[in-house]
Amino acid sequence: MPQLGFLPRRACAALLSQMLRPPRAACLPAVCCHSQVAEVMLTSQLKPHQEKPNFIIKTPKGTRDLSPQQMVVREKILDMVISCFKRHGAQGLDTPAFELKETLTEKYNEQSGLIYDLEDQGGELLSLRYDLTVPFARYLAMNKLKKMKRYQVGKVWRRESPTIVQGRYREFYQCDFDIAGQFDPMIPDAECLKIMCEILSGLQLGDFLIKVNDRRIVDGIFAVCGVPESKFRTICASMDKLDKISWKDVRHEMVAKKGLAPEVADRIGDYVQHHGGISLVEQMLQDPRLSQSEQALEGLKSLKLLFEYLTLFRITEKISFDLSLARGLDYYTGVIYEAVLLQPPAAGEEPLHVGSVAAGGRYDELVAMFNPKGHKVPCVGLSIGVERIFHIVEQRMKTFGEKVRTTETQVFVATPQKNFLQERLKLIAELWDAGIKAEMLYKNDPKLLTQLHYCENTGIPLVVIIGEQEQQEGVIKLRSVATREEVIKREHLVAEIQRRVSQP
């Protein structure tokens, strides 16, 4: 074959053309083949679009979107809760949404199966946090902190069957307040109960009751009733259901499903159906069977001291010593508490079965689980069930047709004339720079009626109106949407708006 480099340019091009051209008979099938490939590729590209009508657009099970109206209500609730936490000297804290899987395992007893595990994405086995308490204990241990009063608001995730009508979701917010450190007995515990009373009273949800017990009393009851120690935690988890199902059903679960002797379950039943105040504490201290348990006696003495402090805080009428309260989480070691609403539904209102709206207790051993030397940091805390509270408020607003403003706009900048966009922009910039919440329509020449209707529909209380006459005279119209307009000097506008919006 001759060297192509030595051929004339035209000869070289002709030779290459002959070498690369397929036989004539093969040309047509090749074209068909390319056409079929293109068709297959086009079909594969179009297929997802063709299947879209069958795709169901929804949020994942147990989650939801929050509308602007819902966000307004939620933020008001959170602001009220956080302000109470701060009033009691708490510092803010945030922790990751996911933790090492080993951080969360063996902390939640039978509920550990509800933890969301994540796939190994970078050499670590991770899980979404189940609550805010265990991450807080990990934080204390990791940073070698002996004392801290903290609050935290954040999402947690639980892979349980959601009950939307009760405000139970798989993804939800928790609002926690905790006191870590070695202090004299029952003083921090009493403050936690005081905080719960302040928040629930402030939210005006109606009458409520805070049930109080002690895990040492629960374990003492189990011991004197004959429950094998190996079954303490699983029987405790059954007992924790007494706020949802009857004692008969709980007893059946203890006996039929967890192998507890019927006579042992009956002895437990003799205790768990009692509730009262300080007098019941005194009665239990004299109980011949329960007094055989050193654990139970310690718990009862702690509750007696707690009631003394609660009396000084003037909240004993909201507190009930309830022997049925168990709090199934493994990490509780002392006083436990849970708040429930007592308010019957108002006229036209659906009954609200939402369970507890706040809960907490003492967990003195949890931090030590993260410390190589097992150093303890006693802790006590509470969690506000903000999702359930929000569900209650939302349902009541629907029942009574209450409307919510979704913005905080204080004043609207309007004009009745054309070609005043630049003046409106200069004016609204002046208001923004003065810290005033202001809006305008994004249109060159909007109609005045359209602008006023916007104010009425969104609840904006004030309207500033500027036109040719006002510009020439150096004045401006400041109009109350609910009443009438006034003419004021242009230079006094910001001060006048600030005066009005500061009025209650």
TrEMBL record:
**Which EC class does it fall in?**
ligase
Per the UniProt entry, the Enzyme Commission number(s) are 6.1.1.21
Q: Which GO terms describe its cellular component?
A: cytosol; mitochondrion
Q: List each copy of the Aminoacyl-transfer RNA synthetases class-II family profile domain by range.
A: 62-416
Gene3D superfamilies found in the cross-reference section: Anticodon-binding domain, Bira Bifunctional Protein, Domain 2
InterPro entries with a match to the protein in the record:
aa-tRNA-synth_II (IPR006195), aa-tRNA-synth_II/BPL/LPL (IPR045864), Anticodon-bd (IPR004154), Anticodon-bd_dom_sf (IPR036621), His-tRNA-ligase (IPR015807), HisRS-like_core (IPR041715), HisRS/HisZ (IPR004516), HisRS_anticodon (IPR033656)
User: Which reactions appear under catalytic activity for this entry?
Assistant: tRNA(His) + L-histidine + ATP = L-histidyl-tRNA(His) + AMP + diphosphate + H(+)
Identify the domain of life.
Answer: Eukaryota
* Listed GO MF terms: ATP binding; histidine-tRNA ligase activity; identical protein binding; RNA binding
- Output the CDD domains linked to this UniProt entry: HisRS-like_core, HisRS_anticodon
What does the record list as GO biological process? Answer: histidyl-tRNA aminoacylation
Q: Quick one: which residues bind L-histidine?
A: D131, L132, T133, R158, Q174, D178, R327, Y331, Y332
Specify one Pfam family: tRNA-synt_His
Q: Which UniProt keywords apply?
A: Aminoacyl-tRNA synthetase, ATP-binding, Ligase, Nucleotide-binding, Protein biosynthesis
PROSITE patterns, A to Z:
AA_TRNA_LIGASE_II
Which family does the entry's similarity section mention? Answer: Belongs to the class-II aminoacyl-tRNA synthetase family.
Protein name in the entry: histidine--tRNA ligase
Source species of the chain: Cavia porcellus (Guinea pig)
